[in-house]
């Protein structure tokens, strides 16, 4: 698909050598991925800061409430490999679309126990919705580096990667602030679930209507041209990674840190509230 009229940046940012061009719609792609990542993170931790109130609203145990957050970590282990394969084979656009639709479907499924007249098993709806959102997470959190490499010139890659990556912890912050502000009593839980659907629906709408290609018509730099033409196959790339000692060490250290952070994030309300703190 050729570039849209007026979509290219001005001559000062264009490079005629090698046919490299940059397109303004790269910022739209970045906006969609960032909004999707932020929304997904808010859905992950939306229950954790108000776990006691949600448990009373749906007559659930605290262990069941904890699983609504922990399911993200469990699903990410097998689904992460599948997400990597989807990104490599289907491309960035289809991975973002799939993530956006899973995210909005999961957010809507979570709200069904509040609108159905007699929901037989509210936990099944809540856990099912969280599981769909967990599948969406594996697709969107792997996207920033690929988006920056394929769509942005070299002097903007760090900025694009930082914005898209930091949208996820921003969503964690939003959930920890917004959920306690929205939920003062049990009857407020449906309002919270409904509000969290809105950013997920907006991200899905933008991804569906505004993203038309995985790579730009012309690469923005020589590095982007190499990235799209000489990347390893999925199996070959995985073999290279597991044999790379530096990568394995980094994955273990960083993965351990993320695991500790995620555990504290999911259980923080239950750790602090027993000491007399409010939600």
Automatic annotation (TrEMBL):
It is found in: Membrane. It is a multi-pass membrane protein. Coiled coil: none annotated. Signal peptide: none annotated. Keywords: Membrane, Transmembrane, Transmembrane helix. SUPFAM superfamilies: MFS general substrate transporter (SSF103473). InterPro entries: FLVCR1-2_SLC49-like, MFS, MFS_trans_sf. The chain crosses the membrane at residues 27-47, 67-87, 191-212, 246-268. Pfam families: MFS_1. This is Solute carrier family 49 member A3. It comes from Erinaceus europaeus (Western European hedgehog).
């Amino acid at each position: 698909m050729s570039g849209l009229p007026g979509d290219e940046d001005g001559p000062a940012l264009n490079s005629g050598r090698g046919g490299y061009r940059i397109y303004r719609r790269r910022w739209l792609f970045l906006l969609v991925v960032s909004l999707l990542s932020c929304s997904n993170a808010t859905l992950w931790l939306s229950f954790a800061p108000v776990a006691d109130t949600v448990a009373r609203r749906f007559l659930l145990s605290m262990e069941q409430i904890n699983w609504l957050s922990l399911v993200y970590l469990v699903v990410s282990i097998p689904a992460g490999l599948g997400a990597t394969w989807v990104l490599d084979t289907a491309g960035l656009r289809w991975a973002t679309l799939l993530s956006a639709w899973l995210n909005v479907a999961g957010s809507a499924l979570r709200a069904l126990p509040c609108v159905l007249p007699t929901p037989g098993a509210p936990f099944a709806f809540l856990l099912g919705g969280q599981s769909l959102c967990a599948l969406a997470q594996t697709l969107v959190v792997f996207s920033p580096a690929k988006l920056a490499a394929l769509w942005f010139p070299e002097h903007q890659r760090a900025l694009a990667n930082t914005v898209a990556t930091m949208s996820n912890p921003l969503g964690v912050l939003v959930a920890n602030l917004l959920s306690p502000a929205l939920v003062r009593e049990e009857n407020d839980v449906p309002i919270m679930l409904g509000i969290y659907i809105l950013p997920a629906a907006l991200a899905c709408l933008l991804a569906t209507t505004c993203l038309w290609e995985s790579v730009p018509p012309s690469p923005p730099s020589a590095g982007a041209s190499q990235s799209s033409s000489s990347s390893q196959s999925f199996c070959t790339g995985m073999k290279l990674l597991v044999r790379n000692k530096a990568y394995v060490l980094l994955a273990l250290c960083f993965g351990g840190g993320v695991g500790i952070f995620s555990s504290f994030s999911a259980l923080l309300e239950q750790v602090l509230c027993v000491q007399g703190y409010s939600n």
